[in-house]
Amino acid sequence: MQDVISGNAAAVDIGRTVFLRHEPGNRMKVILTAVILTAVLSSAVFSFEPIGSFSVVDSIPHDTTSETRGLDFFENRLYESTSTPGGPALMAIDPVTGDTLIIKWLEERLRPQGVTAVGDKLIQMTFKEILGFVYDRYSFFPVDTFFLPIVEGVGITFDGQRLILSDGTSKLVYVDTASYEETGQIQITDDGKAVHYISEIEYFDNLLLAAVIPSMKIAVIEPQSGEVLQWLDLSLICRPPERSFIFGLAWDESTRTLLVTGPRWPWIYRVRLTE
Questions:
Q1: Third-level CATH fold of 32-274
Q2: How far, in Å, CA of 191 to CA of 216, rounded?
Q3: Which residues share a beta bridge with 231?
Q4: 235-263, pLDDT tens digit by residue?
């Protein structure tokens, strides 16, 4: 199978695709009582004050062997970019049961990071290799490969017109979906101070959400200015595995909720943001 390559990207074997069928059966699902939580931010890590609040309305079983590095939700399906005991992969997941529906295995040398849906396509990025893989969203068949215009690939989202990329710094880069060339940048700041170590990002309602490591904090950002409007602290709802932070943010427009998870977490939390 010949991959389509954009620009100067070298040919890469991005592996095989496996479709899984699950028999109907009972799956344990924990429904968490919806409790409004006011975020509390550790002054040992950040100097700014949190003002955000949210409620946890549900949780979805999540594979504790999955080293999640990206999450997206589109048309009632979750997409996860991850490394597993079987190797690096892209997965389609049932948003109710947590069952894996499709797996696309990648080369062992690759370190998958963020993933986002753009119409009928999925775009998955890699870390040090700074490659972007474009797939058909239904079959996971590869349709394009391109170089990311950043130094490291960490997070990716789509604002309806452009891709937005994070590279682990305080910078976000806007990228054209046709040419995959940079069209602009913004610096993320809070009260004039740069917010570093941005990882997973998500766009909704003309707002950006950004996970900041090493913490369990999510910044709510005004995307034109890059200014942080408020903070959410998920350490109040879960105790992640050691050295594991938020690496999965996905907005579900149909329920107006945010899906949140991370590497080796037992749950994907469904969170409702409050005013």
A1: Neuraminidase (2.120.10)
A2: 20
A3: 219
A4: 877 777 777 899 999 999 999 999 999 99
